[in-house]
Design brief:
Helix content: 25-40%
Number of strands: 16
Order of helices and strands: EHEEHEHEEHHEHEHEHEHEHEHEEEEH
Radius of gyration: 24 Å
Strand content: 25-35%
Shape: elongated
Largest sheet: 9 strands, mixed
């Protein structure tokens, strides 16, 4: 049986790991966000995992995900920090902590998250038992300076408890946050198994996330996405939807059942082809089944392309093919709510100015077999864009900029432009996300 205690104290702009770790085994808690999980047998071992704080209060990051694991033996302390730990300070702190006796951890695991070292970011797994300060400091330097790379699998040598001291794993700086979290989660499960802290058959289960918040949102941020879209949409969920939790997922996660506990899913801009290819056929099938059984889907720009039927790797949940050419330009456009759009979004602002970046345009003449009769146009383009050749794309005017449809028991809403790029449209986008979640 796992006992969970969570303490939220004030967070300085940059919480150094030295402060957080000293707090944990000197019981002088001054500035730390931490989770402590204890098994029924508490004597040994003690593992400490240092991870970045998630970006928003309703974000479900590494700590929240790993804390769903049922610890049976020993103690797992998860420390969330804001900022990059300094290796010298960590070494000095741990050397002092080691002299204090029984609360000294057996393992320290530092996840540097988005903190870069050149073009890479890193994690370090450190065996503390038996190491003196000089050895520990050298180990930390090795961890920070290593040029080694890793695969996304979990090699046995990385999680071995043979006492070799340090294992370092690095990945390209632009690795999506979803994959950083996934990799840390995989390693945590493997390490805890090896240490006998969880049963060999125990694994991370997505359904356990349902206990973290009332309504969950799965945000896709991997292949086919990029730019500021994922971050903006995560901010909007945090700011506009009460009692929600948002977590990032990649194609591997979706194929493993990550959508199961979510009320809705969000697919941002980038490349519709890239999204479909990244999900693979099994991931697209999992997404299709999820929506049809009552889940939600919000697609923005590339996510709107992907929901349609223009390419084989698209979802084909909306029976509309986008009109060529897809490069209709970038810039500001105006969109206008239809009567159906006013029912969903309200009458406060019926015309919005928003960024447009080659989003899909569904022209009637391009829809074989009559298109999608269940597709409801919520907003149309009021002004056109200008393409890279200087051609004003007047054919856009009057065509769908935002639309929705039911799909089985689920709901789909697609947005061609990028209202999430503008803070003044946060409430508008929030209403779109809430609609895809279904009735309260």
């Amino acid at each position: 049986m796992t006992t969970i205690s969570r303490s939220f104290l004030f967070s300085a702009q940059r919480i150094l790991v030295v402060a957080a770790l000293s707090a944990l085994w000197f019981a002088e808690i001054e500035a730390a966000d931490y989770t402590v999980l204890r098994g029924a047998e508490r004597e040994w071992p003690h593992a400490v995992l240092v991870v970045p704080l998630p970006p928003h209060g309703q974000s479900i990051g590494i700590a929240d995900q790993i804390s769903t694991l049922p610890i049976e033996r020993g103690t797992l302390t998860i420390v969330e920090t804001d900022g990059a730990p300094d290796p010298g300070d960590i070494a000095e702190s741990l050397a002092g902590a080691g002299a204090s006796g029984e609360n000294r951890p057996d393992w320290l695991w530092i996840h540097y998250g988005a903190v870069s070292k050149g073009d890479e970011v890193a994690q370090a797994l450190i065996r503390l038992a038996g190491n003196d300060a000089e050895t520990l400091e050298a180990a930390l330097e090795t961890a920070l300076d290593s040029e080694s790379a890793f695969a996304f699998d979990v090699p046995d040598r990385i999680v071995s408890l043979s006492g070799e001291g340090v294992a370092t794993f690095e990945y390209p700086r632009r690795t999506p946050l979803s994959r950083q979290v996934r990799h840390t989660r995989q390693l945590a499960v493997a390490l805890l198994r090896e240490a006998g802290m969880i049963s060999p058959e125990v694994d991370f289960e997505w359904e356990r996330l349902g206990r973290r918040a009332g309504r969950l949102v799965a945000l896709y941020d991997a292949d086919g996405t990029g730019g500021s879209g994922p971050g903006s949409l995560e901010r909007i969920v945090d700011a506009t939807i009460e009692n929600a939790g948002i977590y990032r997922v990649c194609g591997e996660d979706i194929r493993d059942g990550a959508l199961g506990p979510a009320a809705t899913s969000i697919f941002p801009g980038g490349s519709g082809r890239g999204i479909g290819t990244g999900l693979q056929a099994s991931g697209r099938k999992a997404l299709d089944d999820y929506i049809a059984s009552g889940g939600g889907y919000l697609g923005v720009c590339a996510g709107a392309y992907f929901a349609g039927s223009g390419l084989d790797v698209y979802l084909h949940a909306v029976n509309l093919s986008h009109s060529p050419p897809w490069r209709r330009g970038r810039g500001m456009v105006e969109i206008e709510l239809t009567s159906e759009g006013k029912k969903l979004f309200g009458n406060e602002r019926t015309v919005l100015e928003t960024r447009y970046a080659n989003g899909p345009v569904f022209l009637p003449e391009d829809q074989e077999g009559g298109g999608d009769p269940d597709f409801v146009v919520l907003a149309t383009f009021k002004t056109p864009s200008t393409d890279p050749d200087g051609i004003v794309r007047e054919e856009m005017v009057g065509q769908a900029a935002i639309g929705s449809r039911t799909y089985g028991d689920g709901r789909i809403l697609v947005i061609s432009p990028h209202p999430e790029s503008h803070a003044e449209h946060d409430a508008f986008v929030g209403r779109a996300i809430s609609w895809t979640m279904g009735p309260d």
